[in-house]
Write a structure and sequence with these properties.
The protein has eleven helices and no strands. By secondary structure, the protein is mainly α. The protein has one domain. Helix 2 packs parallel to helix 10 and helix 5 runs antiparallel to helix 11. The radius of gyration is 21 Å and the shape is globular. About 17% of the residues have low confidence.
């Protein structure tokens, strides 16, 4: 089938690998606990969209080129590490609000109630602030994009796909990129299922922490330190 050998074995190996804690697992857990179920799901969707991007890169042969080029590989590694470190520093400095979708939604709902009770006149400062708030990008869209970038800029995923997928593709391969796409999308589907389970498990802890402002600040600091640690893990990828 599409030059794929032992597809059942690949599914079993992919499922086992999805269950193994890694950068993606820690990242999604952290985002869910800090921001709640919606932020966790947006992060999970972003992470798995990144897997689709890596699948296309492997199928097109670009991942092999990146892995073989020390300059390109180093650039991706530095960019991925720097991105996570910046996220971590912002989280530490945010005091619990920077990456919290729940906080943003609460603020938006409070603002909506305030505008209903005391509408601002046209041209008043309150009216312009309301317009700016309406035009601002959705927090979940930002969270999703952060998940995509976190995964796409992770060189470990490049090496992982290059090591795993060819083991289950027959030589000679008569179907070009199709077997790589089929295996990569299978792995992505399994990963999506597992990350949704992770979010479901972690979400209740977010609700408990949301009851305490102090706990929110501590969570922001811990989350930031986790992002910095993940960035360091990516930076030292060989």
């Amino acid at each position: 089938m599409l030059s794929i050998e032992n597809y059942a074995g690949f599914v079993a190996a992919a499922a086992a690998l999805c269950l193994t804690p890694g950068i993606d697992t820690v990242y999604i857990l952290t985002r869910t606990i800090a921001g709640g179920r919606a932020e966790g799901l947006a992060s999970a969707l972003g992470i798995n969209t990144g897997l689709v991007v890596h699948t296309v890169l492997v199928a097109a042969g670009l991942s092999l080129v990146l892995a073989a080029s020390p300059v390109a590989f180093g650039a991706i590694k530095i960019a991925g590490a720097a991105y996570l470190v910046v996220m971590g520093v912002r989280s530490v400095l945010s005091g619990g609000a920077s990456f919290s979708t729940a906080a943003g939604e609460k603020s938006a709902s409070n603002g909506a109630r305030a505008s209903v009770s005391s509408p601002a006149a046209p041209g008043a400062p309150g009216a312009s602030a309301a317009g700016a708030s309406t035009a601002a990008p959705a927090p979940l869209a930002r969270t999703y994009t952060q998940g995509v970038l976190t995964n796409v800029l992770n060189p470990k995923i490049i090496l992982f796909f290059l090591a795993l997928l060819p083991q289950f593709i027959a030589v000679p391969n008569e179907h070009g990129p199709l077997p790589f796409l089929a295996l990569g999308l299978t792995y992505t589907a399994l990963s999506t299922l597992w990350t949704v389970v992770i979010v479901a498990i972690a979400a209740p802890f977010s609700r408990l922490l949301a009851r305490s402002e102090r706990a929110g600040r501590v969570t922001a600091v811990v989350s930031g330190l986790v992002y910095v640690a993940l960035g360091g893990t990516i930076f030292f990828t060989a």
